[in-house]
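Example S7 (structure tokens).
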């Protein structure tokens, strides 16, 4: 499984957006590895690695000019859009990408319930989109430490927790449960900054 090849198939002609996607995805991957190693969760390292690289592939279909996305869909749909892209790519190439499609569609916030989707009139399928497997939980959580806008610096644990508060108590309770499952708390140290050369090397491999 070569996630760079899949990303390249969709991001050819979009080098700046691809750089941003890769930088964020590599940050999420490193954080996921850090949490995985600390917690000793029985995750497949390959699945976590490819899942982290692919989790936001759907942003290219969404409208978020601040992060160079000029697609049609609302940004909240980037997870389900990514899942659709991976399922279609997998069907065309005879690859089973379902594990990664699920990682995409279940990583928004601390996951979304059918009730969240109905009550907030979100443009998403009316079903639970919650992280269930260890890999889905790990990537959903690692993703919360990084934003794709601004300086893209890692957020502190209290800042991450605060960012979930605005989505209500249920969302925060799910975040806390994810933290318990993965052994994440305020003692988790920040990562060293990702060298720009690492991003540049991935970009060369991808486009
Ligand atoms: Fe992300």
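Recovered sequence:
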């Amino acid at each position: 499984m070569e996630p760079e090849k899949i990303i390249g198939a969709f991001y050819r002609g979009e080098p700046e957006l691809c750089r941003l996607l890769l930088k964020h995805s590599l940050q999420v991957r490193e954080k996921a590895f850090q949490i995985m190693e600390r917690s000793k969760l029985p995750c497949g390292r390959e699945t976590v690695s490819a899942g982290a690289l692919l989790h936001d592939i759907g942003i290219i279909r969404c409208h978020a000019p601040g992060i160079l996305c000029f697609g049609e869909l609302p940004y909240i749909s980037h997870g389900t859009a990514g899942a659709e892209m991976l399922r279609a790519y997998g069907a065309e190439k005879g690859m089973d990408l379902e594990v990664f499609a699920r990682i995409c569609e279940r990583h928004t916030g601390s996951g979304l319930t059918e009730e969240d989707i109905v009550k907030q009139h979100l443009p998403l399928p009316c079903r639970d989109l919650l992280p269930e497997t260890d890999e889905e939980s790990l990537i959903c959580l690692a993703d919360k430490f990084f934003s794709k806008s601004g300086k893209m610096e890692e957020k502190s644990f209290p800042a991450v927790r605060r960012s979930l508060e605005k989505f209500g108590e249920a969302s925060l309770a799910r975040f806390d449960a994810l933290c318990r499952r993965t052994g994440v708390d305020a003692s988790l140290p920040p990562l060293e900054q990702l060298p720009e050369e690492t991003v540049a090397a991935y970009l060369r491999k991808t486009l």
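Notes on this example. The chain is about 55% helix and 0% strand.
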